[in-house]
Specification:
Structural class of chain A: mainly beta
Number of strands of chain B: 19
Oligomer: heterodimer
Number of helices of chain B: 9
Number of domains of chain A: 1
Distance between the termini of chain A: 29 Å
Mean pLDDT of chain A: 92
Strand content of chain A: 25-35%
Radius of gyration of chain A: 14 Å
CATH architecture of chain A: Roll
CATH topology of chain A: Ubiquitin-like (UB roll)
Mean pLDDT of chain B: 94
Shape of chain A: globular
Strand order of the largest sheet of chain A: 4-3-9-7-8
Number of helices of chain A: 1
Order of helices and strands of chain B: EHEHEEEEEEHEHEHEEEEEEHEEEHHH
CATH superfamily of chain A: 2Fe-2S iron-sulphur cluster binding domain, sarcosine oxidase, alpha subunit, N-terminal domain
Helix content of chain A: under 10%
CATH class of chain A: Alpha Beta
Radius of gyration of chain B: 21 Å
Number of strands of chain A: 10
Low-confidence stretches of chain B: none
Low-confidence stretches of chain A: 104-108
Structural class of chain B: alpha/beta
Largest interface: A-B, 40 and 38 residues
Shape of chain B: globular
Helix content of chain B: 25-40%
Chain lengths: 108, 373
């Protein structure tokens, strides 16, 4: 069961969406093409986007509009992508970001 | 870096920016709006409730519908809108550096030259710091509202709302409309901050509103699983013996907003601090022009108010920018401005509105003394 707001008392039914597959930390996830990556993950109950540089604390959605950068993840190998601002495309590879997201730092 | 020249550049495509752009373009200005998002409209598209006021103020119309109308009007008037475009710098001689593109793609920086600039960058949500406030599941109330109403996903099922201003009250109701359960709303002040009509809606739906209460801590393994609330004394200190634990997976913070003023500060616009307007905001005159000639402000950047005041302020800025470029005569501009000010005065009524009206006139008074100094 996805955490979607499909039927809404004011907004009505969601229009039909094109479903695509993305990979999140190695697992296949179904997402809606063009929705924000963050939304696709929240729909699956995934709320941790990254772990902090020094203390390794979890972070997730905080502002939802591109200001706070707490939802940054590694997208197709590129770190620090704000998932609340970036739309889903078919085949995207999304990874939880550890620290600055550099693979060489051995924290992944 | 490519060069681009515009008569009017508007930073921010929310209600203030779009209405400024529409007015400027209507008067014949070559007008560009730059907006950081994939869709313009600012926060209008998450406002699914009906606005208050009289019909002249678009009362009874939902924010989402106003957003659609503004975008259609922009297109009709030939306003160019650049999306996924962030104004990252504002320099002397009115140049604006704009970064374009998505985080996961190639970005480019374009430097624009503008004859007039309207800053309509909006505001950001204030945070409340408590133990556990950085845990996933703690978020701005506006963030939760964006998720449910725009992205159509629930950030959680069981919510504790912090703050009883209109945002806290309205988003609580909208979370319930989206299928979440709002377990409680806490408000540190002794009285509910927002309109009674919004408060009674959620009270009727069974949400306990605890005034004189605050949040102490959120706990959980990599996400919020529970949160403690407690009463506060008359000095706002927590009364730990009243502590209660709520089983919630989401804590939403509605603690007000502050103007996004970085670009104005970058350009040395003189600022004033006013608690009623959310903190520091640029001084401006009745035409919305700042102490930097040719730089205008409109909407929340000039002091946090509401979408309907932002729409009117945007018109003031757009008309005035066009007038200063000789696109519209002084008499016409004055007549239109006086109509707009009439509507603004109408929006700044009631106990909340009067305080804002007072604060806005202080801004204009300070502008005058800054100019004569």
């Amino acid at each position: 069961m996805e955490n979607r707001v499909e039927n809404h008392v004011v907004l009505g039914m969601e229009p039909p969406q094109n479903l695509v597959e993305i990979t999140v930390d190695g697992k296949p996830v179904r997402a809606r093409e063009g929705e924000k990556i963050l939304a696709a993950l929240l729909a699956q109950g995934i709320i941790v986007n990254r772990y902090t540089v020094k203390r390794g604390e979890p972070r997730g959605l905080f502002c939802g509009i591109g200001q706070c950068t707490d939802c940054a993840m590694v997208v197709d190998g590129k770190p620090n992508v704000r998932t609340c601002m970036t739309p889903v495309r078919a085949g995207m590879v999304i990874e939880t970001q550890h620290g600055l997201g550099r693979r060489a730092n051995g924290t992944e | 870096m490519a060069q681009n020249k515009w008569e009017v550049v508007v930073v921010g495509g929310g209600p203030a920016g779009l209405s400024a752009a529409i007015e400027a373009a209507k008067s014949g200005c070559r007008t560009l709006v730059v907006d950081a998002n994939e869709t313009a409209g600012g926060q209008l598209f998450k406002q699914i409730h009906k606005f208050f006021g009289s019909s002249a103020h678009r009362a009874g119309v939902r924010g989402i519908d106003i957003g659609g109308e503004l975008l259609a009007e922009c297109e009709k008037q030939g306003v160019e809108v650049w999306l996924n475009s962030v104004a990252i710098g504002l320099f002397k001689e009115k140049t604006v550096a704009v970064e374009r593109g998505f985080d996961n793609g190639a970005k480019s920086v374009v430097v624009l030259e503008a004859d007039r600039i309207v800053l309509a960058s909006g505001a950001s949500e204030n945070a409340v710091r408590f133990r556990g406030w950085t845990l996933p599941g703690v978020m701005g109330a506006g963030a939760a509202q964006t998720m449910i109403n725009v992205n159509r996903v629930l950030p959680g099922k069981n919510v504790l709302m912090i703050g009883s201003g209109n945002v806290g009250l309205i988003v609580s109701y909208q979370l319930m409309q989206a299928g979440a359960d709002v377990k409680a709303l806490v408000e540190a002040a002794p009285k509910i901050g927002g309109y009674a009509v919004h408060a009674s809606k959620i009270a009727r739906a069974g949400v306990p509103i605890h005034t004189g209460h605050t949040v102490l801590e959120a706990r959980g393994d990599r996400r919020v699983e529970e949160a403690d609330i407690c009463a506060v004394d008359e000095k706002w200190q927590p009364l730990l013996e009243t502590k209660k634990t709520l089983a919630v997976d989401t804590v939403t913070i509605a603690a007000g907003l502050k103007p996004l003023v970085e670009l104005a500060m970058m350009h040395d616009c003189q600022m004033m601090f006013h608690p009623v307007l959310g903190g520091w905001a640029p001084l401006h005159d009745a035409k919305m022009e700042t102490t930097s000639p040719g730089i205008y402000v409109a909407g929340d950047i000039s002091g946090v108010e509401e979408a309907n005041t932002a729409l009117e302020e945007g018109k003031l800025a757009g008309i005035s920018a066009a007038e200063s470029l000789g696109k519209i005569g002084e008499a016409d501009a004055d007549r239109i401005r006086s109509e707009i000010w009439g509507r603004l005065d109408g929006l700044r009524l009631g106990p909340h509105g009067v305080m804002r009206m007072q604060a806005k006139s202080e801004q204009i008074d300070h502008y005058k003394s800054a100019q004569s100094a």
